[in-house]
Amino acid sequence: MNAFEGLAFGFSIALQWQNLLACFTGVLIGTVVGVLPGIGPIGAMALLLPVTYSMTPAGALIMLAGIYYGSMYGGSTTSILLKVPGEVSSVITVLDGYEMARRGRAGAALFVAAVGSFAAGSIGILGLAFLAPVLAASALRFGPPEFFALCILGLLVLSRLTGSSLVRAAVMVALGLGLSTVGMEPMSGVARFTFGSLELSQGLELVPIAIGLFGVAELLSSAHDKLTAERPLKVRFKELLPTRSEWKRSQGPIVRGSIMGFLFGLIPGPTAIIATFSSYALERKLSKHPEEFGHGAIEGVAGPESANNGAAQGAFIPLLALGIPFAPASAMLLTALLIHGAKTGPMLMVESPEIFWGVTSSMYVGNVMLLLLNLPLIGVFVALLRLPMYLISSLVALLCVVGTYAISNSLLDLWVLLLSGVAGYVLRQLKFEPVILLMALALGPILERSFLQSLYLTQGDLADIMTRPIAGTMLVIAAAVLIYPLLQGLVMRWRAAKPLADLKKS
Amino acid sequence: MSHKNLVLVSLLAFGMCSIAEAQTTEFPVRPIRIVVPFAAGGATDVIARVVGQKVSELLGQPVLIDNKAGANGNIGALQVARSVPDGYTILMATSSHAINATLYRKLDYQLTTDFVGLSNLASVPLLLVVNNAVTAKTPTELVTYVKANGDKVNFGSGGTGTAAHLAGEQFNTLAGVRMMHVAYKGGAPAQTDLIGGQIQVMFANLPEVLTQVQAGRLRPLAVTGGTRRANLPSVPTFAEAGFAQVDAKSWFGLFAPAATPAPVIAKLSSAIAKAVADSAVQARLNELGADPIGNQSETFQKFVVQEVERWGVLVQRSGATVD
Question: What is the ipTM of this complex?
Fold first, then answer.
């Protein structure tokens, strides 16, 4: 069955009423889960897995997949409106999304995020249908050394993520990496900085820190800036849609973000996060107005929000084409397949075409549903901002605390939330950018584990890592990025000196 | 009535209520929560869900699966050890917990004394698999291969002190080779790297690699347990391959806090055993590559004590330890 026949067959399954219902339920729950901070798509999928017992394997997967990519749509909502990231993959969106909201452009930001998610979904599905087997095989070449190299590149991108000075960025990176060493050392299991606490031995949970650094810190700041000050969040209804120029500026970032996210999604591990900040950095680099980034540049919303959805779609390829889950969410989907007794593994496409093509096609249906669902909701969400500030603040506080507790019913997480809130407030007063800290904290464990694994694999020989084609190339690029400014400086000096020398000769 | 009396009276009233409840109502009257101390998607999770579904039908109450992953399963175990011992919160523990008993220098719970085993649901053999680029076709050939390749062969596992890790170290000792151990965060990423050729060897839980083996992406060399597997008839057992000492299996059983009332334990234990005996559940477990057990509480309890001892020897020999 070629891709066209496959898609036609898939749509015949996805459009059966039971599966349409399953898809709608999935994306609806996904949207809600995405909007609410804290509880993430994986938790929601685990909760709803028993509901799928009575469904067909294809129907079950259609619904659970809907929760996953649906949550990527909703994740941006609270990031933009309240500066509380709904999911870790929407942290970057607070940078410009919230600034847009403060300037009364919340509607435009939400609109662009929804359209970007849709575009990414569509591009991802095409990739899934046409390129799945090829891409899946190449993703397997990504071992620990490649991961290590990718993380190094990621850290370099991070240090230039925002307009803040290199020194300040480096401090944030170092702090983030430092915090990421809390917990068990990945190879030997030695506990570090845990003070005997079993909970701390698995490391710091990312979401409470994300919610604390932004949501709680924003609450503290607004209290500091006096609640009585004129509310900056006033939005008029006619301003819900992006202007012609905003729309034009978003198109490039959406396309680039979608493709970038899709490619990152193919790589094993939590790469959606790297995709979002890389997209942000890329757009800032390409933009004609880099100075606007951090002050409400629409590109900074369009790119990353497309990237996280692209990554969500890309992550289905290794699962459906190889039967290997690369990320926790796809592991959840694999569980569903196993419980339903479906044959997983590389033969899924041949042995259970109704699952492979049915799910692929349902994603398109689901993305259309999500777009239709999310666009009208923009008005509702933006209307929330008309509430008096004291109500919004209480709402945010409630969301932060409940959302954090919902992750793993842990009191420790609440303390982490509180401390990160205070830390976020202090960092902001000192003009440090907490986004960088958070991203470094997300990268840290992957960096450490992949570095140690690489050392074990090569028996401690770092040169071996350099000779691997993908890892070596990435490390050379990283070195080039570091050395380039130095060389540039030297060349400029040389050029400045040359005319003088020429003059002397003549 | 003074404040003190009020407290006393309400305590009394509460006490009588609970006695009345225990006498008049049958356990269970509300949903039962199975704490699965590993991430959703792993073998433990799938087995708990398959059996839990049937137990729910038998007891007429929903059975909820609560994934509490972290610290090699210790976080979930500790939570259940400290929960109210009423039978409504039970733990899905595995051979990992029997290993943890000696692997961890300090643990805030004891598997053998803080818990009572309800029933062992299933066991899973370990399958020695290699990447297709490895030329060895038997365990003995693997030893030759490892020796010929300057010991530059790595074996992966889902983490330090997992059954896969300890079996690998045991194989190293028995064969006199030194494959390097690479720890991953769970079985799935280790399997990804095994297929991708980053690592060469793995002692994997059979269900986790079965489909990849059947698709020819990984080569099986030998399997633990007394007999060959029906779904892999050409794969010899370790005993047949000359490594009779490698006979570790992973197992998955349900436990309740030790102070749980005996009638509740009896009821849960028999319901679980009945669920495992169900033909549909058996078929599903077999499909997953697991061998259904479903024994009674006393048998299981004795087995757990033996297991803690048995793994303790391997842990000590491997030199692994965790804070």
Answer: 0.79
